[in-house]
Amino acid sequence: MNPPRSVLEADGIELHLSGRKILQSVYIKLETGQITGLLGRNGSGKSCLMKSVMGLMPTGSQSVRVDNKYIEKPYQKPGLIRYLPQQPFIPPSLTLQAAFDWYGVKTEEIARDYPTLYQRRNQKISTLSGGEKRLAGVLLILTSNVAFVLLDEPFLHLMPVQIEQVAATIRQESRRKGILLSDHRYETVLGLSDPVYYLNTGGRTIRLTTPEQNLRDLGYIY
Ligand SMILES: Nc1ncnc2c1ncn2[C@@H]1O[C@H](COP(=O)(O)OP(=O)(O)OP(=O)(O)O)[C@@H](O)[C@H]1O
């Protein structure tokens, strides 16, 4: 039996940083069983939006609802949401195995699709390559036992075959999770996501209707 659907909506997010308006009247909706894409130019505020949805930014107003209930600090609610930042976040002195244990994820789950990384499970994070570290971080968040995950540039540093494999894992995990996917590999994002939002400079989201054409018109692609 499929688990009941859950919906996370964020609307009216307003964010000012250092006197600059970063986000205004942002709307975004995530639903378990769905991958939602988020595109936008460098500096448009995608990472800030994800951190705001987590409850990690000084947005000033209640704006995140899960199944119609306001949640003030979503990141504090067990089993609800996890966020993959662009920067490395796993303590380098931990082994890969210890990091997975800490997040409550079984390394055996990645053994079949990521055999090379699995073989490195007893190595410290600090001894992994840049791409291996990124892959470990992506899988840690993506396979966590939570309802929603926010992925900020999950394909960064990954080689093409690994990008394909991670895309397949994102699709697989989306059967039971709501996933927000942001990455400048827009073709991969468009191939995986429906709906797709574009964060306009000025901090408003637009839902794309004919994505490639819209992205051309918005000057995101040639
Ligand atoms: N703590 C902060 N204080 C002041 N300004 C900030 C802070 N964090 C981010 N910004 C600014 O907010 C804007 C949006 O940043 P953000 O990292 O969200 O962009 P992005 O869309 O994720 O960009 P990219 O595609 O380059 O990763 C940028 O202009 C950035 O300089």
From TrEMBL:
SUPFAM superfamilies, per the entry: P-loop containing nucleoside triphosphate hydrolases (SSF52540)
Keyword Acyltransferase listed: no
Pfam family, one: ABC_tran
Record keywords, A-Z: Amino-acid transport, ATP-binding, Nucleotide-binding, Transport
PROSITE patterns, per database record: ABC_TRANSPORTER_1 (PS00211), ABC_TRANSPORTER_2 (PS50893)
InterPro entries in the record: ABC_transporter-like_ATP-bd, ABC_transporter-like_CS, BCAA_Transport_ATP-bd_LivF, P-loop_NTPase
GO molecular function, one term: ATP binding
Sequence ranges assigned to domain ABC transporter in this UniProt record: 8-221
Listed PANTHER family: HIGH-AFFINITY BRANCHED-CHAIN AMINO ACID TRANSPORT ATP-BINDING PROTEIN LIVF (PTHR43820)
Family: Belongs to the ABC transporter superfamily.
Protein's UniProt name: ATP-binding cassette domain-containing protein
